[in-house]
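Extended Data, panel c. Modelled sequence:
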Amino acid sequence: KSNPIICNTTFIKYLTKRAEKLGVEILSGYRYIENEGKHIKIKNLETKEIIELQDNKIIGADGPSSNVAKNNMLYENKREFLTGVQARVKLKDFDKTKIEFYPYIGEYAWFTPESDEIARIGVAARAEQNPKRIFDDFMKKYVGAESKHKGQILEMQGGPIPLHKPKTPVRFKYKNFSATLIGDSALQIKNTTGGGIIPGMKAAKILSENFETYPVSLSK
C-alpha cells in the first residue's frame, strides 16, 4: 500500500471546491472574533470591518488554540502542546521509498520523502526541550558541509501540535444554541505522530451523519 504525502494548501483548495459545489458559502478573508450565543462576530482582515452573523450553531475548526473553544467554555481543560519545526529540503542520495521515524529525538522526529528530490524533515518537542536547538542538531545529518546529502532548505514550517486528552469537552449547549469543536480545536490527533487530518476528518464524518449524537461533554 502507498502512503500518500498531502500538501495542506492543495488539499484545502480541493475541499473548498467540493464544498462550494454543494452550495456552501465561503467567506474568505474573514476571521472569527467572538460570539455571545448565536450572535457571531467576524472581522474582514482587509477592511477591519466587523460584521455580525446569527445562527444557533457554531462549529470550531480553528486549530489548537481555538477561539471558539475559549469563547464557549470549552478551553478549561488544561491543554498541552508540542512545538513542531519542519523543513522542506532538497537532497541528494536518499532512499525515496522509506519514511524514517525517530522516537528518541525530542518527543519524536521524522524524515519523509515528498518526491525524488525533496523530503520533509522535522522534530516535535516540548517548549522546555528547546525545539529549535533539537531541530538544528538533527538537520546537521542532512544539511551542511559534513552531510553526505548536501541538503538545501527550501521552506521552513512550524506550529503548535496539541496532545490528545480523553474526555476533552467538545460541545457546549445552552438553551437552543450549541458550540461544537472538531479537529485540532478538539485535540483530535494521533499522539504517535501528531497527525490531525485523518482523526479530524473521521470526527467530521460522525458530526455530519448525526449532529445530535456527536459527544456532548458540557452543558448548562
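The mean pLDDT is 90. This feature is highlighted in the accompanying rendering.
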